[in-house]
Amino acid sequence: MRRGVPDPAPVRTAVVRAVLGLLALTLVALPFYAAWRYDAHRRAVTPQAAPPAGARPVAGEAGPPRGGGPGGDAAAPPVVLAYHDIGPRGGSRYTVTPEAFDAQLAALARAGYRSLSTEEFVRYLDGGPPPARRSVYLTFDDGTHGLWVYGDRILARYRMRAAAFLITGSVGSHRPYYLSWQEIGRMAATDRWDFQDHTHALHRRDAVDASGTRASALSNRLWLPGDRRQEREDEYRARIARDLDTSLAEFARHGLPRPRLFAYPFSEASEPVNFPTAKGILRHELADRFAAGLTNNSDRPLPAGRRAAAAREVRRLEITRATDLTAFRAELDLWTAEEPGARPDPLHDAAGWEHTGATSQGGAGVFTGRGPYPGRTGFAAASYRPVATADWTDYRLDVTVDRLREATNNVGIVVRDGSLAPVTVALSHSYVSLLAGTGDRRAEVVRRTLEDNAVHRVRVTVRGARTEVVVDGRFRIDWTEPSAAGGNGRGGLALNIRNGGAPGEWPRFASLRVSPLRVASSPAAGTGTAAGARAGTGTAGAVPAEAR
After folding, report:
1. Strand 492-499 to 409-417 pairing
2. Residues 337-362: b if buried by 16+ CB within 10 A, e if exposed
3. Same domain as 371, residue 254
4. Could you tell me if residue 5 is inside a domain?
5. What residues contact 466, with CB distance under 8 A and at least 6 apart?
6. What is the domain count for the chain?
7. The whole model's pTM is what?
């Protein structure tokens, strides 16, 4: 070794010892690291459960029904089903067992139903043609891990698909209740699932006043305890916008397509709010970001269809633990869209009448003279299959009413029921009148005196925005309502009946027939004059002989 030059041997020895020490540490730590990684993966991705034992559907059962495809009689709006969680245990009414879910999908498959992707569903809402008749859009709110553990393999069994609406701020939390992002990634890779929005962190109830009243944090101004006041309207709007944008950013950050649909927390589209402009603000913010909002409760029937598309709000059929297979099939029947005339004699369809108001009557007996009645005198009203008929347009009613008594009883026939432009034909012993609108905005627009009679025959024709009424083949009223344009004017029929005179003197609907309008009538056939067809105008007079 030269003077002044350090000996390299000790340095090399130290380096070798350090490398060997790191190698030994790595070898010792590697099993622990692998175990940690496995445990983390196991906690992030729960093993899937086998689907319930049961017969698989025969080949083709889950595909499109025969004759399916867009257009014509083989097309119709889909039914949207709303689920929450799937699991074998738990007391929640929102948790459907794997066996029940399997049986429901099997029933759909055997009946020829096809499940839609969100892309197909939104394309229809955006104005595209209806899908094949007997289509369903399966939705799940909240993003619970039961969808991955139990639901995914049941969907695979029946070759169906579904959409999960995520509370993005809850993903990966409260495990194992909510899905993890890793499970969501695996579900997305199957092409059986897509993912939509259910807020980031506003699926909760919070204090909305100084007394601590709790209500939806999405649709109410919150109480600010530090300032001892409610949020201002601009603060509410900013908070809602911030939450929605944060949620959308989470979808993008995890490589998921931008959601097209939004599900209201607590299905709160019709919940009370603590300031009058709340619903308008919320719907404006949603419309800026989504094609439509989904709810299980609404102020009027809004099943998937042109009426719902115009409102940008779709009502779903909610399925819970209490929905057995018999109830499932019955509800599906009531929700499946029908063309006018598919059931031409509604008075003999007892299950189709949904009574409104305070009455607890059932069926059509209160209208046909069989009863029961709400009392010796009083009032009763019911809508006919209000969900299945929500998109009716261009149809005709032929009605016979008897047992009318002067100034003591009368009936009402409502067309475009549930729309923004309903028309009520009020009929008594001596007059017929048309009332347009709903609630406090309903007003009589035309009245016509009739020949006094206990029996009257009425034909009501709904053609686009126009309503034509002919009584006893002689007296006619035409009315055209501008607000009935497009989906806003679509709707079916409802009846009401009143007895205000002697006990037991209720009027009766002796017959009611529904038929579609296949070909528009010519003016010579009594479709009305140009004056009668002008928006917002009405005409009344005798029907020409050739139109009787």
Report:
1. antiparallel
2. bbbbeebeebbeeeebbbbeeebebe
3. no
4. no
5. 478, 479, 480, 481, 528, 533
6. 2
7. 0.82
Cβ-contact 459, 397 below 8 angstroms: yes
| Per-residue pLDDT tens digits for 94-148 | 999 999 999 999 999 999 999 999 999 999 999 998 898 899 999 999 999 999 9
Note the Cα 232 to chain centre separation in Å: 31
315, 377: one domain: no
d(CA 519, CA 67): 24
* Relative orientation angle of helices 325-335 and 98-110, to the nearest 10 degrees: 50
Shared-domain flag, residues 240 and 189: yes
> Residue 336: which residues within 8 A CB-CB, separation 6 or more?
76, 79, 134, 388
Place of tokens 């001596």: 430
Same domain membership, residue 377 and residue 236 = no
Same-domain pairing of 280 and 405: no
Residue whose entry in the numeric block shows the structure tokens 């695996």: 186
* pLDDT tens-place string over residues 145-192: 999 999 999 999 999 999 999 999 999 999 899 999 999 999 999 999
Residue 230: CATH number of its domain? 3.20.20.370
Containing domain of residue 315, as a range? 78-335
